[in-house]
Amino acid sequence: MKSLFSKILVANRGEIAVRIIRACKEMGIATVAVFSEADRDALHVSLADESICIGPAQLKDSYLNMAAIISAAEVTGAGAIHPGYGLLSENAKFAALCEKCNIAFIGPPSNVIAKMGDKDMARQTMEVAGIPVIPGCRKVKNLAQAEEEAEKIGFPVLIKARSGGGGRGIRLVKTMGEFPDAFCTASAEARSAFGDGALYLEKFLHPAKHVEMQLLCDKQGNAVVLGERECSVQRKHQKLLEESPSPGITPETRRKMGECAIRAAKASGYVNAGTVEFLVDDKQNFYFMEMNTRLQVEHAVTEMVTGIDLVKWQIRIAAGLPLNFTQDDVAPHGHAIECRINAENPDLNYRPSSGKITLLHIPGGPWVRFDTALFQDYTVPPFYDSLIGKLVVHAQTREEAIRKMQAALCELVITGVDTNKELHRKILASAEFRSGNYHTDFMGKLEGEKH
Description:
Layout: E1 7-10, H1 14-26, E2 30-36, H2 43-47, E3 50-55, H3 66-76, E4 80-82, H4 92-100, E5 104-105, H5 110-117, H6 119-128, H7 143-153, E6 157-161, E7 170-173, H8 179-194, E8 199-203, E9 209-217, E10 223-235, E11 238-244, H9 251-268, E12 272-280, E13 286-292, H10 299-306, H11 310-318, E14 335-342, E15 344-345, E16 351-352, E17 355-356, E18 359-361, E19 368-372, E20 379-380, E21 387-395, H12 398-411, E22 413-415, H13 421-429, H14 431-435, H15 442-446
Parallel strand pairs: 1-2, 1-4, 2-3, 4-5
Antiparallel strand pairs: 6-7, 6-8, 9-10, 9-12, 10-11, 11-14, 12-13, 14-21, 15-16, 17-20, 18-22, 19-21
């Protein structure tokens, strides 16, 4: 019988670091927090059993400092590292470094991260597995080749970074006249964000819904899909609100997408928690978009409808334990919605906000969850992502879940920094959102942009 790790280092910050530490505490596993100088007073630091400062505020000098993180694990005797999401979670080099140092990386093997993180290679892998992919082309060598491929595909097209995620290195191009500037900008952004300026092209599908399938895959070859999440409420390819189940796909489409997600996992040799993302058109045709080789920000939505703790299963799988349930045991029930609460001002072009939390009131009640690292008098630093919390609710029906979320948002009080709380209330009040028949252009229409 495999045994769990005795100590895990959490290589992240904010709400996800707190989430992981809580799971470890419940499992009887000791934790090590790493922190930057700007996060010395952060909640995850005080919750962990041990903590080590790994550098200055800037990400490159702290949370992206692989050597410092590995050293912290070795000094504290941590047998595993949980990377959370973002930062180093999809960095194949870091996963390989963990493997080399005999430290378990709580995620897929480094070769799988490399394969699926290369979007061009991921497309090829899916095509071989018989999974529908969005019409497009492989990596382009230069602008001239890209323009030639764009003509073949037909406008509008998406220019996309081969590496990374989070909506960076992506540009929508509607005419050839816009193409050169968009190509150069996307390449520069991708190079800055991921150290790789390589690009490929995809046909821009419109209207379409963004629906993702959550997977758990163990080292024994078992794989289960835990239902889907609707992620079409996005701004600049960044998700704002997610829900499960998707109100826009049929049971038959859900079944087929789940089968394709399992095939994708098998084709890539996937292990641990992962997500297969699809675009779905109005005729219920769906196409593979990418695979996220990590825990998703929105994992709580799936946890609410399935009752399965994804973080604990990540840890168990990394320790070599097999899944103790099968696909037949997965029975999602009710409806869950998550609103990402960001420290930003939507009325001022989403200007990030930082400062001291002068008043904090977190909503309560049955099946209301607020994942956050905030506390009274905490100072939100200006150096990191604007996400400061995730408000999640669960109810028996979608209509009830919407009302519950509206009530929870009304009760949520965060003063001292600007937040997007009122924007979420506007989204939930929208007739288009309430109908369930909304697409990835929803936020553009809500904000009055022309498409």
